[in-house]
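Bumping with the actual sequence this time:
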Amino acid sequence: MMIVLSAGAAAAGALKGVVQNIIAPVSGLTSFPTLTIVNSSGLPLNTTDLKVNNPVITIFYYPLQDDPNFLLRLGDSSNMDIKINSTEVVIPANGNTFTSPDGVGPHGSVVAFSAICQHLGCVPPIIHYYPPSAKNEISDLPSNASSPAYIHCGCHGSTYDPYRGAAVTTGPTARPLPNVILDYDPTLDNYKVKSMVGPTIYGKPNDLEGGTPFPTGTTTTPIVLLGSGV
């Protein structure tokens, strides 16, 4: 089911989350599971469950129970869906690149990224999505920043562009957020998560280790709301 936590409660667990991601136990999976994302009623998530540019922090866990990921329905400054196209994303740390997935859903506007900052592992609510209405609250955003909105980490100022595969906009991070690959069923208007691409999730030996697997037979992962976002 959907779980709603206050920003204060989430903040209290943030440091613990950082430590867990720095010193992660080595256990995990041999392959990526395919899980259906479910809503507050435990039913498969529909597009209407997602608000365009929602400032409320919306996450789900994948591929392990310890791995939070942002779930975003992106739009413009008028809160109209924007189709997100696949793009080549540079990893500044090593110069390598990867191809981000297209947005999914009826408007191609739904995307998902790891919610663990790639700099030092800070987690929500310290890192969260700033919608177009709150973009100016990111004080260290460069003047030439052109995306409608950003993911920003309040620990040390790292900023990511969710419209371009969570590419690095400002450091100190030298790695984009790992991208989550979603699968959309237009007939049922349902969303599944099936894999990840990009750099390894922060603090892990690889995406499938360093945490607790879902119980055997698990087929769903619920969305979780953390406070009110910005």
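The tokens above came from a reply further down the thread. Residues 1-24 have pLDDT under 50 and may be disordered.
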